[in-house]
Description:
The structure holds 2 protein chains of 2 kinds. Chain A is mostly helical. Chain A is built from 10 helices and no strands. Chain A has a single domain (8-218), classed as MetI-like fold. Chain B has 2 domains: 2-78 and 157-238, 3-Layer(aba) Sandwich (Rossmann fold); 88-155, no CATH class. Chain B starts with a strand and ends with a helix. Classes of the chains: A mainly alpha, B alpha/beta. Magnesium ion (MG) binds next to helix 1 of chain B. The site of magnesium ion has 5 residues of chain B, from helix 1. Chain B: It is found in: Cell membrane.
Amino acid sequence: MFNYTFRWNQALKSLPQMLEGALVTMEIAILSMVIGIAIAIVLTLFRLSPLRPLRAVAAVWVEIARNTPALFQIYMVHFGLGSFGIHLTPYLSLLIGIAYNNAGYLTENFRGALTAIPETQTRAARSLGMTSLQAFRHVVMPQMLRIAFLPMTNQMVWAILMTSLGAVVAMNSDLYGVANDLNARTFRTFEIFAIAAVIFYLITKTITISARLLAARLFRY
Amino acid sequence: MIEIENVRKSFGSLEVLKGVSLTVPKGEVLTVIGGSGSGKSTLLTCINGLEPIDSGRILVDGVEVHAKGTDLNRLRRKIGIVFQQWNAFPHLTVLENVMLAQRKVLGRSRAEAEAEAVRQLKHVGLGDKLSVYPSRLSGGQQQRMAIARALAMSPDYMLFDEVTSALDPQLVGEVLDTLRMLAAEGMTMICVTHEMKFAREVSDRVAFFHQGVIAEIAPPEELFGAPRTPELQKFLAATV
Ligand SMILES: Nc1ncnc2c1ncn2[C@@H]1O[C@H](COP(=O)(O)OP(=O)(O)OP(=O)(O)O)[C@@H](O)[C@H]1O
Ligand SMILES: [Mg+2]
């Protein structure tokens, strides 16, 4: 027989703290997505650029982001930069690490989306006198973002889950960090992590469902 | 005036334009006919600088298209082009399609661009489709929208590349009517087309493209009435 008695009451008392952690988790995920999308758009332009060095930057970024553990990426931001004398807070390290990972995956998603947009779109835009940047910005990019919308939602979910990797940089204000601290103090391991898991689940479900609703509204064409 | 002087152009080892010379004065309607793969589309995309050329020159109002210092984006404002494949911007409504370049390229205000877009769309008979997305338009309507989009830039020249060849037969008429209307209004036009009846009706001159050169060029009565080269005779016999 196992002699673990569930004490949900005690664990539930920490719910407000965990919800606060959840807010931090969402904040990091949202910021890391905004930054990740912005960088992925720039990397996509680098990829399309005639300049080799720019294409190389994009290629290296994507390769590292997609082929090394996200945990290493966050670790490197914190301790790697730290060894060069750049000391970031756990919050910033986690945010930058996730944004780095997001940008890599999203760039790859954008590449796929671009193959679905015919070259004639750019030609039509250029024929109207638009510069190549205008053609990208106003004609290609909106279509690319639409096609990549679902993969972007997946990345957002992934970003939420990646916040738990903040543990490696001693991040303690996000949902996982709060749960971890509570566990250390109360030893209600199962209850606390079960509650945290439910919160994670509810957040990611909300994201997937609202993304679907948003897509229906945004993309009427 | 568009002046094309001995233009040559290859794709890899395939020489597509083999010394094309042609002058299109303001106000002229020139139609270009010729077999598939003879280089007609290539010539049009060279005129607005979408394709580079290997030798020769193309001048539009005295400006050399492929010269180093030429501002192509500026030059392209003068030259409207409508392609064979429909290329409406699918994420924008019909109205927005026609407004976009006006705003970004010409710097017109929203109100100005919208007024001009509405005017051009009414002109081509799409006044009731302003807020529709292109996916809801028929092929003929999409082509007319593309024409309105080009016209809204107030171009001095219009280039049409087989704008009816991807259309169902019953939709060809409405697009050709739009072209006829433009011709009647005095627009300078180069129309690549397979529609011989149309070419006969609207053209000031017809050019017959064959194997990368203009094999014959003449007013329609002459070109269709008394084709001189055996190639043209053969081509006309095959298309009737
Ligand atoms: N971007 C390109 N790269 C390589 N070859 C090309 C390219 N564009 C055209 N060609 C080739 O150049 C030749 C002329 O093409 P073009 O499209 O100008 O002919 P066309 O007279 O317009 O024919 P059609 O009546 O079929 O439209 C063809 O053999 C075509 O395969
Ligand atoms: Mg063609």
